[in-house]
Amino acid sequence: MKNILLVDDAQFVRYTLKLMLEPKGFKIVGEAGNGLVAIQLFKDLEPDMVLMDITMPEMDGVGALKEIMKVNSNAKVVMISAMGKEDVVREAIMAGAKGFIVKPFTEETVIKVIEKMI
User: Fold this and answer.
1) Of 5, 51, 111, 115, which has fewest CB within 10 angstroms of its CB?
2) Could you give the 3-state DSSP secondary structure of residue 39?
3) By the 8 A CB rule, do 50 and 42 touch?
4) Helix or strand or coil: residue 29?
5) What are the chain's domains?
6) 23: preceding bond cis by omega (within 30 degrees)
7) pLDDT at position 15 over 70
């Protein structure tokens, strides 16, 4: 079983991801609504993977990604964001993101990206 940390400021997005992933055998070990909380949870929970939104309050996903990569340079972080953010996606990939999911997403897309990481 893979332990996943969900990070998105929209609770319904985290809930939707949880509904998609748990029946497939993935365990949601934590949830965060901003990048600052995500960093602390990453340190505390040591998840196998992080699914993280880019646009969030307090600290955005790219900032959190950079801090997470300082904690563990092998961290598997997949960024999630809406279309039209190509420059930010590029920055996230350069900072160490291992994948990218575009909103709105389908269950098939999410599972495919995660299984590619495993």
Assistant:
1) 115
2) helix
3) yes
4) strand
5) 3-117 (3.40.50.2300)
6) no
7) yes
Q: Which residues contact 5 (CB under 8 A, 6 or more apart)?
A: 28, 29, 30, 31, 32, 38, 41, 42, 45, 47, 49, 50, 51, 52
pTM metric for this prediction: 0.94
Nearest to 79 by CA among 69, 89, 71, 87: 89
Average pLDDT over residues 43-69: 96
User: What distance in Å separates the CA atoms of residue 78 and residue 16, rounded to the nearest whole number?
Assistant: 16
Structure tokens at 101: 């999911």
Q: Does 117 have pLDDT greater than 90?
A: no
Instruction: Specify whether the CB–CB gap between 16 and 59 falls below 8 A.
Output: no
